[in-house]
């Protein structure tokens, strides 16, 4: 029987993807204009099941505290801290929004999605110790990082991360930094709570199991074609504004939009895997995110870390991620995604990246070829007493790194996030990965600024400042403003509270087992 075509529905804003980006943008839009009519479309049958799912991302509240790739060292050995400062200030904007929503009663207790988890950078070897010492000196001199602690004393490090120091060579040079109020964020739980709150408001609709297969600009609106993946029924939407926040799926949709700004962009997909610990006694003894230095040629998403997590209310200990190459743009995507993304306007940049990044290609191939014992050998750098039988491999999420033209017209590979917007502001797409979910608030405010400039200048800016008090000011430049804001956010989000036992955390966060719980331990 032929599929039927429904009448065209009209909305002010169509948000594609139900992850943390779209849910944050929808939340901001409804706070700034409660009358706005929003439709959120998700191709899977549940919310936040791709990049925002707790098992598909690091869960680190990326603030530059522990991620050594945010403070690169140049050929002369000088450490640059500019990117770490920017990422820290951007993450503070997310903390402010979440705090405001809790104050307003629009998010539940913070313990449902965020937990105080010290952020630690750990290195060994004289050269790496010298690097970390310089990094600490520079960062701690700035008010954003003034609370960062540093030590080369094995006894102190054993207090910070006891399992990491057990069985280690006592003659080995080691060093670590620590920020005690780092955060572990279950972005899947956060996203579901944001969407739950949106669904209680008029003018918001969520369609799961619906896929966008075509979009075309017609006069002052976008004509978007959907397919219900459950029934096969086709639907038509007329939207004044479209946001493509579909993770790796954003690039193909951006290409279908055919806006001039989309030309030349390509994608480089990278998969990931975690080692997951199943020994409860080990899980209970580690309470920190311990980040090290990435291997030469490794993408930023593969910076190794021994990672305390609370996912769907359950404690977990993960190590990784181990990177791999895939042709899929989404975990639930097609193996033809990469081939289908090739266009005449991005072929040369993609070929340039392939030719000029052979080290990355070799690294990804070597990661794929590793055995379980190879992965355990890497883990032993962070957990010397690790036993292979206590750890199993679980699949993490997909990331699509950005390929674009540089100033000379050649292709380059970028590992950050980038907003691509139509000149008239009627469509925006977020591409890339790191630091991703942690800076969702900053990224979605950029969407508002670029796509709704008149409304921002006609009252939205002031309303936004009530939700994000640092908006329009610089936390990098203003230490007093930071102190005032940080004191409130850390208190509201429970990041300054004394460390709770694992049992207390589970009691606070207990929720029924989900499909993601089951698949992670299989």
Automatic annotation (TrEMBL):
Alphabetized UniProt keyword annotations: FAD, Flavoprotein, Oxidoreductase, Tricarboxylic acid cycle
Required cofactor names: FAD
Pathway(s) where this gene product acts: Carbohydrate metabolism; tricarboxylic acid cycle; oxaloacetate from (S)-malate (quinone route): step 1/1
InterPro entries xref list: FAD/NAD-bd_sf, MQO
GO MF terms, alphabetically ordered: L-malate dehydrogenase (quinone) activity
Chain segments annotated as coiled-coil in the UniProt record: none
Pfam families for this protein: Mqo
Superkingdom as given in the UniProt entry: Bacteria
Keyword Flavoprotein: yes
Record family assignment: Belongs to the MQO family.
Protein's name according to its UniProt entry: Probable malate:quinone oxidoreductase
């Amino acid at each position: 029987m032929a599929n039927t075509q429904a009448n065209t529905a009209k909305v002010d804003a169509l948000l594609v993807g139900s992850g943390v980006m779209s849910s944050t943008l929808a939340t901001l839009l409804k706070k700034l204009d409660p009358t706005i009519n929003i439709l959120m479309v998700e191709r899977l049958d549940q919310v936040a099941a791709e990049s925002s799912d707790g098992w598909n991302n690091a869960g680190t509240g990326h603030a530059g505290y522990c991620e050594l790739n945010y403070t690169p060292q140049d050929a002369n050995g000088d450490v640059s801290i500019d990117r770490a400062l920017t990422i820290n200030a951007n993450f503070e904007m997310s903390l402010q929004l979440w705090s405001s929503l809790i104050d307003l009663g629009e998010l539940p207790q913070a313990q449902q999605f965020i937990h105080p988890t010290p952020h630690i950078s750990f290195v060994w070897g004289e050269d790496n110790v010298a690097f970390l010492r310089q990094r600490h000196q520079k960062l701690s001199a700035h008010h954003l990082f003034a609370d960062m602690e540093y030590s080369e004393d094995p006894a102190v490090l054993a207090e910070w991360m006891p399992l990491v120091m057990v069985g280690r060579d006592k003659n080995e040079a080691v060093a670590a930094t620590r920020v005690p109020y780092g955060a572990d964020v279950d972005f899947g739980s956060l996203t579901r709570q944001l969407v739950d709150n949106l669904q209680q408001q008029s003018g918001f609709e969520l369609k799961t199991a619906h896929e966008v297969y075509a979009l075309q600009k017609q006069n002052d609106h976008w004509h978007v074609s959907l397919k219900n993946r459950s029934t096969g029924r086709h639907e038509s939407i007329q939207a004044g504004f479209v946001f493509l926040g579909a993770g790796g799926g954003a690039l193909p949709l951006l290409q279908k939009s055919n806006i001039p700004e989309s030309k030349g962009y390509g994608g480089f997909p990278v998969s990931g895997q975690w080692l997951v610990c199943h020994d409860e006694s080990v899980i209970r003894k580690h309470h920190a995110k311990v980040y090290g230095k990435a291997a030469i040629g490794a993408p930023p998403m593969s910076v190794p870390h021994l990672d305390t997590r609370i996912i769907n209310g359950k404690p977990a200990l993960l190590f990784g991620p181990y990177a791999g190459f895939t042709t899929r743009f989404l975990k639930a995507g097609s193996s033809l995604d990469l081939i289908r993304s090739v266009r005449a306007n991005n072929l040369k940049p993609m070929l340039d990246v392939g030719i000029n990044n052979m080290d990355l290609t070799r690294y990804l191939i070597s990661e794929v070829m590793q055995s379980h014992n190879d992965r355990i050998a890497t883990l032993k750098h962070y957990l010397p007493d690790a036993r292979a039988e206590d750890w199993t491999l679980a699949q993490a999420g997909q990331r699509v790194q950005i390929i674009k033209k540089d100033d000379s017209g050649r292709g380059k590979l970028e590992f950050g996030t980038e907003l691509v917007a139509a000149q008239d502001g009627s469509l925006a797409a977020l591409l890339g990965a790191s630091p991703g979910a942690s800076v969702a608030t900053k990224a979605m405010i950029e969407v508002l600024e670029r796509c709704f400039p008149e409304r921002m200048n006609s009252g939205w800016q002031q309303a936004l400042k009530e939700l994000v008090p640092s908006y329009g000011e610089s936390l990098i430049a203003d230490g007093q403003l930071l102190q005032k804001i940080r004191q409130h956010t850390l208190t509201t989000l429970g990041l300054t509270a004394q460390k709770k036992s694992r049992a207390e955390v589970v009691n606070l966060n207990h929720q029924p087992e989900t499909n993601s719980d089951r698949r992670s331990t299989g």
